Amino acid sequence: MANGNFQDQAELCVRVQTLRERYAPPKSDHTIEAQQIVDALHQFQECVRYLRTRRSTGAVLNLSSEADVQDAVYLMLRPWVHDLAAENPTDRIANRYTIKDFISPKAQTVIEIKYIRDGSHGKHISAEMHDDIENYRHHPRCQTLIFFVYDPNSLIPDQAALRRQIEETRVYGGRSLRCLLIVKP
Q1: Does 49 fall in a domain?
Q2: Which pLDDT score is estimated for 61?
C-alpha cells in the first residue's frame, strides 16, 4: 500500500505542475539594464527640444520644477521600462522618509532627479547627492543609483568636480553601489 500512495503522490505532483505551467502568467523576457536607462536619459534634451519646437504656439513642455522634470522623465522611460515605479517611500532612516523618484527592480536601479533652482542649490547639490548615496547604500533593490540633474541655467559651478565626487562604485560590507551622474542643461 505504501507503493500505491507514492504513485498517487507522484501523479498528483505531475498534474499540479501541468496546471501551473498551463495557467502561469506569461513570462516576460523583457529585461532592462541600468546602462539602457542611462542611454535613454542622455536623449532627454532632444525630447525636450522636440516638444518645445514642434508647434508654433510656443513651449508645450514647461520644466520649471523638480516635479515637472520627474514627469518628463517618467513619460520618457515608462513605455519600455515596464517595472518603473514612481515616488515610493523607502524605509524610515534617521526619523525621516527618503523618497526615491523612480526605481526599476529588474534593473536594480534607482533614478534620483534633481532640478537646480538657484545658484545656492547648484553649489550645494553635492551634499544632497551624498545624503542620497548614504540612504541607498543598503537598499536591497539598488545596485545602480543614477542622478539625473536638470540644470537649465548652468548653475553648477564645476560639473567635472561634481562628477569626480559622485561617479564611482562604492562598496559597503561587500555589496557594491554604482553611482552615475547625468547633467542636462
Answers
A1: yes
A2: 77
